[in-house]
Amino acid sequence: MTIDDVAVGSLRRRLNGPLLRPSDAGFEAATRLWNGMIDKTPALVVAATGTADVVAAVEFARTHDLPLSVRGGGHNIAGGALADGGLTIDMSGLRGIYVDPVARTATVQAGCRLGEVDRETQRHGLATPLGFVSETGVAGLTLGGGIGYLTRRFGWTVDNLLDVEIVTADGRVRRAGRDEHAELFWAVRGAGANLGVVTTFTYRLHEVGPAVYGGMIAWPLDRADEILRAYRAIGAEAPRELAVWLVLLRAPAAPFVPEQWHGEPVCAMSVCYSGDLARVDEVLAPIRALGDPVVNLLAEQPYTQLQSYMDATEPSGAHYYWKTEYLAELSDDLLSTVRGAFAECPIPQGQLGFLHLGGAIDDHDGDDGAVGNRDARFALGIKGQWDPEEPDADAFRQWIRDAWKRLQPFSTGGNYINFQTDDEDDERIRATYGANYGRLAEVKTTYDPDNVFRSNRNICPRRTS
Ligand SMILES: Cc1cc2nc3c(=O)[nH]c(=O)nc-3n(C[C@H](O)[C@H](O)[C@H](O)COP(=O)(O)OP(=O)(O)OC[C@H]3O[C@@H](n4cnc5c(N)ncnc54)[C@H](O)[C@@H]3O)c2cc1C
After folding, report:
1. pLDDT for the residue 464
2. What is the share, in percent, of the chain residues with pLDDT greater than 70?
3. Predicted confidence (pLDDT) per residue in 367-420, tens digit
4. What is the pLDDT of residues 4-24, one digit of tens each?
5. Beta bridge mates, 46
6. Which of 1, 66, 143, 260 has its CA 20 to 30 A from that of 176?
7. What sign for the dihedral angle of Cα 458, 76, 379, 376?
8. 397 found inside a domain
9. pLDDT-based confidence at 263, cuts 50/70/90?
10. Residues 256 and 112 in one domain
11. CATH code for position 128
12. Is residue 184 located within the same domain as residue 236?
């Protein structure tokens, strides 16, 4: 697609921030995504410095019928942040965070990463539930729902969203909250990438830390049956302040893993206990009772440290592929299928595991926000990462798809939109939103009837004529 130089010049004059083309310095950095498997090159990048730049970019894309995409942290596995041959609005220059410790709120600009938000809120001993890899963009995570160690205490990230400023497809700047553009706000809470460009998010904060207890603990894989059963009991009985992820993987060659375990299969738990530290021995007793771990990094530590200790395990630029489902329970059948599937995993950096949910997500009605899935007690993940030159990449992807097929029968039927890859079909998007899908399509039709925002897991507007 060629874009008229005159038109580009007129856009440039409307912008405060730079307008980048592929030969410009900064273009490569602005279009580099976390998942190195994504190969898309936009024609233009608007490096937004504020809401006015976003409005100009949305109007330009709409007028010139250019595919439009929005880049937050660039971490989405499906690569929705870029549209081939289109216009990308890069929000990464917008990094302001304003904490009101009295009102217990944080207003966050859309280019922020999770670690930056945790750092500012923790200065006041406060936090909102966000993810656990600090470079992930707060925008994409929030707009899809948002899961973290604090989800069991305080709900999905969007359960803690108070309002947003959003630029909709008509170029208008709106504040959306429960009392203003309430339907738009309802849809933003789980399907936000479909509704506009969010420029700021305001979150409710809670007292957390600053010291919490947790980290990683791992046992040899030959104890997996015992550890998995214990995990089921721990997951069912845990107080909301305790979240335990469980993963079957090969131990990384990291300094904290004894050398003889490098590359060996293990069963690991990643633990966050954010409650009263005087109770930590009692709360963690079932984990400690398992005894004889090969790695034990459980310790009292700053919440911000626990939120970032896994960062190095997910380097930017590697190739990533995964499949996920929500689960209501960990049945014997499921656990033995997981165990069997992992035994056949050909990927050196392959993983099968569970995120621990339940708790506060179920305190809300199923239609409180588009996000839904309030029956999820765990999220199952089948993951692989490899080098860009990996010769067995096709076989690796196939193993993930095959294991997924074996495990899908255990799903609630729901799944997390933010974990979908770009080869998943519309049925998966409908499954994500379940009973909320119809209402979501209505809101999409009202605010984006021409589907300007379609570089995402797309909700199609209904035909209006
Ligand atoms: C290493 C890693 C760890 C993760 N951990 C977690 C976790 O703990 N919890 C969790 O819930 N998720 C987690 N995720 C998933 C994560 O939530 C999604 O990948 C999310 O989309 C990332 O947001 P981003 O801003 O970085 O993404 P981007 O790739 O920049 O954007 C993702 C999507 O959102 C849209 N978008 C981005 N910004 C805006 C905006 N301002 N307005 C409108 N649309 C926008 C984009 O167009 C795109 O479709 C993780 C992902 C990775 C790669």
Report:
1. 61
2. 99
3. 999 999 999 999 999 999 999 999 999 999 999 999 999 999 999 999 999 999
4. 888 899 999 999 999 999 999
5. 19, 89
6. 66
7. negative
8. yes
9. very high
10. no
11. 3.30.465.10
12. no
What span, in angstroms and rounded, lies between the C-alpha atoms of 31 and 22? 9
**Of 52, 72, 90, which residue sits at a domain end?**
90
Residue 60, domain CATH = 3.30.43.10
Please say whether the beta carbons of 87 and 110 come within 8 A: no
User: Which atom of ligand 1 is nearest to 113's Cα?
Assistant: 26
Instruction: Answer with the residue of higher pLDDT: 257 or 332.
Output: 332
CA pair distance 358, 335, nearest whole angstrom: 18
Q: Does 279 map to a domain?
A: yes
Same domain, 225 and 108: no
Query: Roughly what angle, to the nearest 10 degrees, separates helices 437-447 and 182-191?
Result: 120
Protein residue with its CA nearest to atom 19 in ligand 1: 76
Task: Look up residue 423 and give its two tokens.
Answer: 């080869």
Cross-strand pairs, 212: 301
Residue 91 CB less than 6 A away from ligand 1: yes
Q: Does residue 61's CB lie within 6 angstroms of at least one atom of ligand 1?
A: no
- What HEC string does 225-261 produce? HHHHHHHHHHHHHCCCCEEEEEEEEECCCCCCCCHHH
Cα(278) to ligand 1 centroid in Å equals 35
Token output for 450: 């021409």
Burial of 465 (0-12, 13-18, 19+ CB in 10 A): exposed
Count of the separate structural domains present in the chain: 3
Q: Which domain holds residue 115?
A: 97-207+441-447
Same domain, 19 and 150: no
Examine residue 269 and state whether it is found in any structural domain, yes or no. Answer: yes
Confirm whether 41 is domain-assigned. Answer: yes
- The atom number, within ligand 1, closest to the CA of 416 reads 11
Alpha helices in 294-392 (DSSP H): 303-306, 332-343
Q: Do 190 and 295 have their domain in common? A: no
pTM over the 0.90 mark: yes
Q: What is the number of the ligand 1 atom nearest to the C-alpha of 166?
A: 42
Ligand 1 atom closest to the Cα of residue 199 is: 41
Cα dihedral 393, 395, 400, 403 in deg (nearest 10): -170
> What pLDDT shows up at residue 255?
81
Residue 102 and residue 182 in one domain: yes
Q: Are residues 115 and 16 in the same domain?
A: no
**Residues 132, 141 contacting (CB under 8 angstroms):** no
Computed on alpha carbons and rounded to an integer, the radius of gyration of the chain in Å comes to: 22
The H or E element that residue 299 is part of is strand 299-302
Q: Is 214 in the pocket of ligand 1 (CB under 6 A)?
A: no
The first and second tokens of residue 294, run together, are: 């090969």
**Residues 167 and 228 occupy one common structural domain:** no
